[in-house]
Predict the 3D structure of the following.
Amino acid sequence: MTEAVPAITRITAIRHGETAWNVDTRIQGQLDISLNDTGYWQAEQAGKAMASESVDAIISSDLARAYETALAIAKHHGLTVQIDNGLREREFGSFQGKTFAEIEAQMPEEALLWRKRVPDFSPGGGESLLAFRERVTQCLRRLVAQYAEKHIVVVSHGGVMDIIYREATGLELQAPRTWQLGNASINRVLFNGEHFSLVGWSDTSHLNSGLDEQHA
């Protein structure tokens, strides 16, 4: 008897383009910051890179920087961007709006817990890594159930990309991050009905084309 071939759902996960706060190393969290000029250009390049692919749905965080990036992709496919709040960035509470240096200077104890990736630590009023992972993984499993055997594009944030990478590779929450999470990077994951697996990560080759002209 032939074994059943598992149904594969393809997920292309794209981080939003650059914002002024990314440049300033300022924590955005769930504050609604738009793309800067470079970010809009990066989003356009990601859209062009995905233009020839068959895509069944595009789902985005509701925050402007992700939604604006998703729109640049969706226009090549005649699709409406769907919003899912489960794809929002981690809520960073009292860290939001501060630079890395300001957090270190003003809240050294909390900064240490953050750097150590303590799973149940939550910045004042924010989400712990445990709660964040639960939210993101529940969202992903809901989406792959809804779009089983399809190809979906998920447009979200660096923290969400981090959770996706860990889910696809089996890395624990406290493991140091050793992989890239570039703005407008294209990341590819498969879901076989039970588990996520990594296909490709942090492809930014589409951002090399025309870079000199963009910064001229």
The chain has one domain: 9-207. The first strand starts at residue 9 and ends at 15.
